[in-house]
Design goal:
CBS_dom, CBS-domain, 145 residues, Diverse_CBS-Domain, 38% helix, 6 helices, two-stranded antiparallel ribbon, CBS domain, CBS domain-containing protein, CBS_dom_sf
Length: 145
């Protein structure tokens, strides 16, 4: 397996995102509808934070993994802003860094999503699932040769 495969080959490029003016109900709705667990928060294409499903669960009694959606305790979400709940000191990686570099960052920092930033602008997102899938596919490819 090549160790220098760039993150750009496995990252999600069509990124769902939030702005600081969005509310937490919007965040939860996007996550449920699209079966994702992390959303970058951007202002003018510059990343200012990350919000995760765990961040929402931490402040709510709602079952954020349930597909129903209408029973969310919106009153709790209205008490906080995206900026108050999001992680503000965001680690990121550039698209030319290797998948192995991303894996090392995940291990060092114990988070599960990395924004991909090039020229100070958000260009993608890579998750632990993307990295695991990459390594498994390469291992399976190696086994069939």
């Amino acid at each position: 397996m090549k160790n220098d495969v760039p993150v750009s080959q496995i990252m999600t490029k069509n990124i769902l995102r939030l702005s600081l003016s969005d509310n937490l109900s919007t965040a939860e709705s996007l996550m449920k509808k699209n079966h994702i667990r992390h959303l970058p928060v951007v202002e003018n294409e510059h990343i200012v934070g990350m919000i995760s499903l765990n961040d929402l669960l931490r402040i709510s009694f709602a079952d954020a993994t349930d597909g129903g959606g209408d029973d969310v305790e919106t009153a709790v979400y209205e008490m906080f802003t995206v900026e108050q709940v999001m992680t503000q000191k965001v680690e990121y990686i550039s698209s030319n860094h290797s998948v192995a570099d991303a894996a090392k960052l995940f291990l060092e920092h114990e988070f599960h999503a990395l924004p991909v930033v090039d020229d100070d602008c958000l260009t993608g997102i890579v998750t632990t699932t993307d990295v695991i899938r990459f390594f498994l596919e390469n291992e399976m490819t190696k086994e069939t040769k």
